[in-house]
Amino acid sequence: MAVGLDLLVQFFPNFASIVLAATGLAIIFGIMGIINLAHGEFIMVGAFSTSLAYNGGIPFLPIDALPGLGRLIGAMLFAALVTALFGLLVERTIISGAIPNWIAERTVGHPVITPLYDRLLDSMVATWGLSLIMVQTFRNVFGNSLSGVPIPFGKLSYGNSSIGLYQVLLAGVAALVLVGLYLLFVRTDYGMRARATIQNESMAQSLGVNTERTYMATFALGSGLAGLTGALYAPLLSIEPGLGAAFLVDAFVAVVVGGSSVVVGTLLSGGLLGIVDTLFSNVYGTFAGRIALLIVAIVLIRFIPEGLSSLVERLRERRLEVD
Amino acid sequence: MSDATEGMDPAVKQTSAELATGVDTDTILQTDGLTKRFGGLTAIDDVDFGVEAGELRCLIGPNGAGKSTLLNLITGALSPSEGAVYFKGHEITGLDPHERIRHGLSIKFQVPSVYEDLTVRENVRLPIQRLASGTERDERMADALAASGLADKADIEASALSHGEQQQLEIGMAASLDPDLLLLDEPVAGLSVDEREEIADRITQLNEERSIAFVVIEHDTDFVADIADHITVLHQGETFREGSIEEIEADPEVQRIYLGGETDA
Amino acid sequence: MATESDDTATRGPLGRLTAALHGPNTMGNSRRFWYLFGVAVLLFVFFPLYMLPSSVTNMSQYLSLALLALSLAVVWGYTGVLSFGQVAFFGVAGYTYGIVAINVTGPLGTMAGLVVAVGIAALFAAVLGYFMFYGGVSDVYVTILTLVVVLVLKTFLDQTAGDEWTIGEAALGGFNGMPGIPDLALGIGEPFLVFDDFTLFYAALLAVLLTYLGLRVLLNSDYGRVMVAVREDEDRTEMLGYDVKRVKLTVFTFGGALAGLSGVLYVTYFNYISPSELSLTAASLPVIWVAVGGRKTLLGPIVATIFIERLGLFLSVNVGDWAFVINGLLLLVIVLLLPEGLVPGFRDLVSWLGDRRSEGETDDTAEPTGEVVE
C-alpha cells in the first residue's frame, strides 16, 4: 500500500517533466517538420532568464521587487516570453533564412539559404550547430553557473515520506499546458491555420493561409513552451549551461513514442513513459529508468510505428464504423 | 549480391515459355477478398481481381475508386486489412515488396521515380546488375537503353530528361527485371499525343514479343482503347464491371459513374 | 562509349584495380587527382621528418578520428541514414579494448582486444540496426534513437564508479574513466612491434589509407550503387527487387565496426577512455566533420576531420573556450550555405575555373576530367 502510494506520488513529477520537456519539440516537429536539436538549449535559455529576472539581473525590469509569489511567477513568464522572442529570431535567421536572404538579395542579388522546413536531417544538423554555439556562449558569458531560484511551497508529507509540493503541482501545470494547446489548436484561427498547414501545405496556401507566418508563430510558440519548461524547472536545477541535455532523452523519446498528434500523443506518451520511468527508477535506480524508457520506445516503435496517438485515431475510426 | 538470380528459377521460365505459345492461359495474378481500410474509409472492398498470363488489362475508374491502392496492395507497398494476393499460384500476401519483385512482379509508379541524380545508364544498370553480370549485363543494358529510345542520352543525368523520356526510362527499368506481370500506374499522364503513341507501342511490343502481362491504370479512354484486351472498372473500392472495351464503352452504368460518380473521397 | 568490362579486358589486373577504384560515386577520377593524392600520401609518410614529434602524435589522433568520420560518411552520406550514434560504437569498442587488453596481458591480449572490440561494436550496431530497420522506424526516428542511445550509454558509464563495475582487473571507473589501457602490440609472448608515438602514426595512416581505398572500391561496386540508390529513393529501390532493410542493416553494422576500429586506435593513443567521449559534444563532432567536408565524398570527411581537429587545438590555445562556438558556427554556416560540404564546393570551383581557362584555348584535354560528377 505504502509502496503503491509512493509510486503514485512519484509519478506526478515524472509525468510533468516528460510532458513539459516534449511539448515544444513536438509542436515544432509536428507542424513544421523541423527537429530542433537545440531544444535543450531553449529550455536552458528559459532557466537562465528566470534566474536572472528573479535575482534582479535584468536592467530596467525590477521583477525581483515584486512581492511574494509574484516575483517567481513574473520571472517565469518573463523567461517564457524571452525564449519565444529568441525562437522568433532563430526562425527568421536560421530556420527560414529570411533575414540572411533579405540581406543577400540586396548584396549578392539572390537568396542564399533554402528554408529548413521539412528538411528533417538538415534541420537537425543546423540546430545542433546552434546548440553547440549556445552552450559555449552561455558558459563564456555567464560562467559555469548562475545563482539559483528557491523552491516554493515546501514539502508534502505522506506516510513516512515526503515530496516537494511544487514537483507535484508541476503535473497540474503540464496538464494545463496540454489543455491550453488543445484549445489553441481547436478553437483559434491560428490553430485552424496550423492544422491546415499540417494536412496539406500547398492546399492551405492556395486557400490563403500565410504558411510562413504560421511557421513563424509555431516556432515562437514551441520555443516559448521550451522557455516555460526551463522556467518551471529553474527552482529544481542548478542553473548551468549544460542543463538542457537532461531533458533531451525525455523529450525525444516522448515525441517518438507519441506520434504525429501533438496534444494526444504527448499526453499518452507522458502518461506511459511516466509510469515506466517511475517504476524502474524507484525500484532499480535512475539509470534503469533511462534504459527502460529507451527500450519501451524501441519496442513501441517496432509495433506502432505511427506512435501512440495513431491508436486513438484508430479507436475513434472504429467507433465511427460501428455507428 | 550473391542471390542475384533468385526468383528466376528454370521452372518459372518454363511457364512463361509455355504461355508465349498461347497453349496455357493460367491465371497469373489473383486477389481473394482483398480489402483495405484506411481508418473509417474502405478504399478497397472485397475485391477478387484476376489477370491471365500474357494478358493486357486496363484498370479504370473515377478518382478515388481505389486503383492505386489496389496496385499498392499487389506490390506489397501496402498490406491489406483482409484478403490475400496470389501470384503464379503462390500466396504472396505476407512478402516484402522486393521478394514479390523477385517472383516476377514489376511496377512503374504514378509519379516518375527515376534516380534523378544518376545518369540514364546508371539508372538502367540498377535493375539489371542484380540479374546479370559481365557481357550479358552490358548487352541487356544496351538493349534496355535502345528499347527506351535513350541510347544517345545514356550519359546525361536522368533529371535532364523530359517527362516523357522519364516515363520511357522507368518503363524500361521495370521491364528489364524480366517480369511476368508489369503494373503501370498512369504511364501517359501529362504526355503529348506523340509520346502517348510511343508508350502505347512500347507496351504492346513488350506484351506481344516478351509475353509480359500488364495491368495498366489509365484515365485516357483513347489510350485504353488502343492497348487493352480487357478492362476492369473499379468504383468505390469494388469491382464494378469487367469486359471487353466494346462492352465497357456501351455500358450505361459505367457512363453514369464517370459522369456523376465523383461523390466518393 | 566503351563499357566497363571492355576496359578490364584490355587493361589486365592493374586495369581492373583502377576500374574498381573509379566511378561516379566517388570524387577524384582523373589522373591529376591521383598525382595530387600521391603527393599528399608522400607528405604524410615523411611527416615525422619535417614536423615536431608532438605534431606527429597529434596527427595519429586525428587520423584515428578520420576513420570515425568515414564510418559516418558511409552510413549517412552514401546510404542516407543519419546516425548520431557513431560515437556509441566508438566508445563501446574503446571500453571493450581496454577491458580485454588490461585483463589479458601481453601483445596477444591487445590483438585479441582489437578483434573483440571491433566485433562488439559491430554486434551492437547490428542489434540496434535490426530493431530500427526491421522495426520500420522511419529515417528521422533512426536519427533520434541513435542520439538517445548515446545519451543513455553515457548515463550508464557515468555511474560505473563502484567496485561492482570492475571486470577482472579493469575498472570502468565512472566519470573518471579507465586509465592504463595498453598500447596495441603485435607478437606472441614478447611484443614484436608496439604501436606508440611514430609507429602508431604509421598504423593510423595505413588504416586510413586502406579504408579510403577499400571504401572507394566498395562504393563504386554494384553494392555501392545499391547503397546510393537506397539513399536516393528507398521505395524505388525496393521495387527493383533489392532488400532495402538488409542493405541498411549491413551498412550500419559495417559503419559500427569502422567506428569501433577508430575507437580502439584512439584509446591506444591516450591509453585512457572516459564517458566524455560519449558526451553530446563528442557525438556532434563526426556530424560536423562529415557535413563540413562533404557527406557524399570520402576525401571531404578525412580532410575536414584533420582540419577541424587541428583548428580546434589552435583555437583552444589562442581563443580558449570559444573553440566550440566556432565549431558550431562552422557547422551552421556550412549546412545553410553549402549543404554539399566544402570539398565538393572546392571541386566545383576548380572545375569552373578550369572551364573558364579552357574556353579560350583549344580543348587538348579531350578526356573528361571526370571530376564534375558526384
From TrEMBL, chain A:
It is a multi-pass membrane protein. Signal peptide: none annotated. It is found in: Cell membrane. Keywords: Amino-acid transport, Cell membrane, Membrane, Transmembrane, Transmembrane helix, Transport. The keyword Transmembrane applies. The chain crosses the membrane at residues 15-35, 42-63, 69-90, 125-143, 163-185, 215-239, 251-275, 287-305. GO terms for cellular component: plasma membrane. GO terms for biological process: amino acid transport. GO terms for molecular function: transmembrane transporter activity. It comes from the Archaea. This is Amino acid/amide ABC transporter membrane protein 1, HAAT family. It comes from Halorientalis persicus.
UniProtKB/TrEMBL annotation, chain B:
GO terms for cellular component: plasma membrane. GO terms for molecular function: ATP binding; ATP hydrolysis activity. It comes from the Archaea. InterPro entries: AAA+_ATPase, ABC_AA/LPS_Transport, ABC_transporter-like_ATP-bd, P-loop_NTPase. Residues 29-261 form the ABC transporter domain. SUPFAM superfamilies: P-loop containing nucleoside triphosphate hydrolases (SSF52540). Gene3D superfamilies: P-loop containing nucleotide triphosphate hydrolases. Keywords: ATP-binding, Nucleotide-binding, Transport. It holds the Pfam family ABC_tran. This is Amino acid/amide ABC transporter ATP-binding protein 1, HAAT family. It comes from Halorientalis persicus. The lineage of its organism: Archaea, Methanobacteriati, Methanobacteriota, Stenosarchaea group, Halobacteria.
From TrEMBL, chain C:
InterPro entries: ABC_transp_permease, LivM-like. CDD domains: TM_PBP1_LivM_like. Its main location: membrane. The chain crosses the membrane at residues 33-50, 62-80, 87-105, 111-133, 140-157, 200-219, 249-267, 287-307, 319-338. Keywords: Cell membrane, Membrane, Transmembrane, Transmembrane helix. GO terms for cellular component: plasma membrane. It is found in: Cell membrane. One of its GO terms (molecular function) is branched-chain amino acid transmembrane transporter activity. It is a multi-pass membrane protein. Coiled coil: none annotated. PANTHER family: HIGH-AFFINITY BRANCHED-CHAIN AMINO ACID TRANSPORT SYSTEM PERMEASE (PTHR30482), SLR1201 PROTEIN (PTHR30482:SF4). This is Amino acid/amide ABC transporter membrane protein 2, HAAT family. It comes from Halorientalis persicus.
